[in-house]
DNA sequence: ATGAAAGCGCTAACAG
DNA sequence: CTGTTAGCGCTTTCAT
């Protein structure tokens, strides 16, 4: 494994010249450049990023923290991040945290110890204090899920308004008895979506029934099934369900099906996220579309600005209600 | 951001002593150690891995290449890799390649340029020549999917035998007309699973019908639906389908359901991988279980040995046929 | 257009 | 037990 010195020797030039060729500086004569390139090829030389990074004190590596890779919601966001990152000559690396603060800290450490230039976190279960402290000295952006009080810039949608619109849609097509299948309220988005749900009910003179609000520990398919079972057992059964994730909603769909009921005739269902799969269910799922690709784009841009030391403002992106079969009569 | 020199100065010792404390060497007196630790805390010092890695010429970073994070099949393997990696003081980073050789090359470059110590690839669509060349100078292990001819160590299961057993099971419960829903035969596992399928038919005197073999470009849900549509349109309709991935099989399940047919009474279905979801379908899916966690463990162990410069042998792990509702009468 | 040399932050061999 | 020092591989300033 050759190093820059050996290349210089082989080409009969100084290491400075090799470095210039490596970095595409045009202050090198064509002839010299050729010689250097030949030497590089001959020695099968690969410049070590460790040397370069130590010297320039940057790694051009971006870390993306996600709770789990098994939720398709993150797919498109990651693509969005990647798009911008690559165009700016950064590489991205995925870090699965399982919402485990210890694991998270491993990746934080990579930033603290200069192996990565910044972090985009999509993990809502983060250790807030640690994250906050990290952000004091390093580049951190929150994407989709966030903690307001940390002062860390975030990109997200208006969760309260999105939820409000979803529920309002159900009311407009005639529903009064609407269940909310929510995530644990330790998450900000869960609290916000509950607020939107309440506002829609209030505005339409519908009294809130606490037994219509079900919390799930997790946003997965199985949780949706489980929660739907509970809802179906209510004495005064709701005629509509708003689930705060598509996976939850799909679980609900299955459970309703098993119970021999029909969607949307017996029970209407609305999801959240517009994952690809939400269009492949039977019936297809009405859902809130988050601009995931754009969210990724924006998050990456914000992070790179932050790395450059610029001031960064949080951004709220638009969302959209996508009406499909699960709420059509 | 303090460096080791400033810590040394603050503590009134040499950088060597600070380094010793950092690396937990017990050749430092308790008193000195205390002083150093205080200085570290006071200056909020974080040792730079760039310096250390340059010096030790290792990064203790392992790269895991996966085609896409959206296939749950990889989840458990990754957990297995992580388990071993962490125990040996390595960190793992996920790299999504989208089976795109260019993207792949970005991550290969990270290894070539010393930012990572090795790679476990689960990407079957790899550029074979590039991979082979990479493995000549760097630590590379193939996991699950592999190319025999590269000479790169791999851990996998006996795909031919697994397929043979799946098809034999279908024959044993009375099926003669068995379709194979296969991946593109550019993949070794697809060729091997086809061989197993053929062997089972031959051994039981069943003539192979070419129209019973459907190739899909991809292992996803939608491909399964699409392929099943084709199969249902065959004039002499099969009574059983062996799909080489659970996602394909689940797509098939849905399509059969849409056609108003019943699984397993009208058509039996066998999948492959035993992803979590395969137990949540209706009916639950008979499938081949790969020892995914173990596969991850083994892959990580092999890679770390390889990094240490040891010789590494390829390994074939056991698999298991899990019989569930989709083939029960 | 090119080279000499300093230095990024760290570890480890050697000396004491 | 601790300090001095060389050097990992690179970039970049300053000369020439």
UniProtKB/TrEMBL annotation, chains A, B:
One of its GO terms (molecular function) is transcription cis-regulatory region binding. The keyword Magnesium does not apply. The keyword Transcription applies. SUPFAM superfamilies: lambda repressor-like DNA-binding domains, Periplasmic binding protein-like I. Its EC number is 5.1.1.1. Pfam families: LacI, Peripla_BP_1. Residues 2-56 form the HTH lacI-type domain. Keywords: DNA-binding, Isomerase, Transcription, Transcription regulation. CDD domains: HTH_LacI (cd01392), PBP1_LacI-like (cd06284). Residues 5-50 form the HTH cro/C1-type domain. PROSITE patterns: HTH_CROC1, HTH_LACI_2. It comes from the Bacteria. InterPro entries: Cro/C1-type_HTH, HTH_LacI, Lambda_DNA-bd_dom_sf, Peripla_BP/Lac1_sug-bd_dom, Peripla_BP_I. This is Alanine racemase. It comes from Neobacillus niacini. The lineage of its organism: Bacteria, Bacillati, Bacillota, Bacilli, Bacillales.
